[in-house]
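Long-time lurker, first post. I've been practising inverse folding by hand and with some scripts of my own, and I keep getting stuck on stretches where the structure tokens seem ambiguous. Below is the full token string for one chain I'm working on. Before anyone asks, I'm not after the true native sequence, just a reasonable design that respects the backbone. If someone could post their per-position residues I'd love to compare against what I wrote down in my notebook.
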């Protein structure tokens, strides 16, 4: 106990820290080491970038290199849907002969073994095999291709009667229409309607805006020629006129010139000597087919058909007539429908309805009604566009005119 007390009572010496002289020595040593390392690394190749002339650059210089252009990715076609293949289970055979392999049931042909008979169709090249499609995929792809190739066209019939002008349509022969069941028979002079002037009340709707107008159809003929015109007058839009003139032959009407006048005039010429139809709009000439008509000569031609053959025509009969506008000359397919009761000039009138089928999904639907009381000339004409816009001409009156001199 006396030793412990003595040690505790003895004062401890104070801890001595580093002196200033020692600190400076250490600083000088560290700086000397840094200088030695830097001098040794100046000549090292790790800080050099070899260029065309092997130039030495600073120790921390960097250079930006442009990335290499990425090649365009190959265009891949639509991926074929994975096929579900169902294989028929094979039943072990008890005969001594080896069982024949059971073919798999799939919607597309599978690869055949080496000893199989030669297929009727060549196999695809291995470098670019086409996707295997089932029947529904083939139908969808064919429909999509047909719609992509099919250009949108404006309605020719609507352009003939609507107060606004339309752009040109393609003059290709339409496909997919029902076939005609009736050939145009020879039409005698007695079957043509008598010269007359028909007045119409026109109501229409364009882009949801209704409007009113008036129209008239002037028809005159003699023993060997005819002249006719259709005009429509609309408020603030002026008058638009269509005129047709030509000859009367054993087949009925044979137009020579057809014109459309609104702000300017465009014409179509029927060249019988060279069997072609020529357009002043610089559209390609079309071959002239037997019985060809224009947009307004079609009405008296159909009137003569009804006067001569109306009693033998049944609903569902279809007649195809090449019909020319100022831009093209395409076949119009006319279908005879059931008779209807119309309200014309305040009176009920039994009328027969004809429908011009649309040539494609962008075409308008054209309907016109004829009646024996008015020599089978149209008592009503209605044209409905795909957009819902329409025009509707209803007969208001009819007066006789003298024949052509």
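-- Answer (accepted) --
I ran through it position by position. Result:
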């Amino acid at each position: 106990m006396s030793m412990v007390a003595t040690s505790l009572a003895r004062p401890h010496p104070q801890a001595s820290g580093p002196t200033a002289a020692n600190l400076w020595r250490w600083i000088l040593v560290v700086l000397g080491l840094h200088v030695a390392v830097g001098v040794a690394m100046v000549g090292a190749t790790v800080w050099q970038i070899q260029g065309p002339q092997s130039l030495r650059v600073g120790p921390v210089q960097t250079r930006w290199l442009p990335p290499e252009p990425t090649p365009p990715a190959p265009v891949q076609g639509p991926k074929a849907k994975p096929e579900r293949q169902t294989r028929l289970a094979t039943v072990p055979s008890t005969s001594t002969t080896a069982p024949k392999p059971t073919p798999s049931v799939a919607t597309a042909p599978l690869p055949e073994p080496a000893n199989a008979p030669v297929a009727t169709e060549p196999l695809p090249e291995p470098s670019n095999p086409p996707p295997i499609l089932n029947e529904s995929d083939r139908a969808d792809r064919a429909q999509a291709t047909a719609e992509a190739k099919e250009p949108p066209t404006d309605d020719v019939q609507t352009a003939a009667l609507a107060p606004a002008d339309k752009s040109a349509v393609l003059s290709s022969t339409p496909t997919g229409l029902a076939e005609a069941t009736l050939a145009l028979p020879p039409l005698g002079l007695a079957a043509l309607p008598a010269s007359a002037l028909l007045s119409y009340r026109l109501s229409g709707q364009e882009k949801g805006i209704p409007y009113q107008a008036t129209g008239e159809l002037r028809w005159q003929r003699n023993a060997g020629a005819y002249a006719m015109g259709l005009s429509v007058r609309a408020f603030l839009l002026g008058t638009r006129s269509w005129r047709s003139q030509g000859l009367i032959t054993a087949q009925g009407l044979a137009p020579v010139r057809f014109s459309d006048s609104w702000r300017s005039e465009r014409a179509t010429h029927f060249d019988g000597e060279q069997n072609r139809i020529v357009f002043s709009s610089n559209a390609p000439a079309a071959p002239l087919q037997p019985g060809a008509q224009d947009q307004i000569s079609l009405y008296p031609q159909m009137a003569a058909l009804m006067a001569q053959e109306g009693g033998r025509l049944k609903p569902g009969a279809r007649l195809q007539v090449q019909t020319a506008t100022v831009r093209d000359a395409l076949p119009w397919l006319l279908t005879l429908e059931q008779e209807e009761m119309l309200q014309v000039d305040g009176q009920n009138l039994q009328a027969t309805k004809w429908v011009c089928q649309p040539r494609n999904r962008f075409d308008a639907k054209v309907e016109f009604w004829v009646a024996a009381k008015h020599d089978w000339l149209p008592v009503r004409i209605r044209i409905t566009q795909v957009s819902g816009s329409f025009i509707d001409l209803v007969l208001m009156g009819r007066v006789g005119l003298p024949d052509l001199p």
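A couple of notes from the structure itself: The CA atoms of residues 92 and 98 lie 10 Å apart. Confidence is low (pLDDT under 50) at residues 1-15, 42-58, 86-133, 144-177. Happy to go over any region you disagree with.
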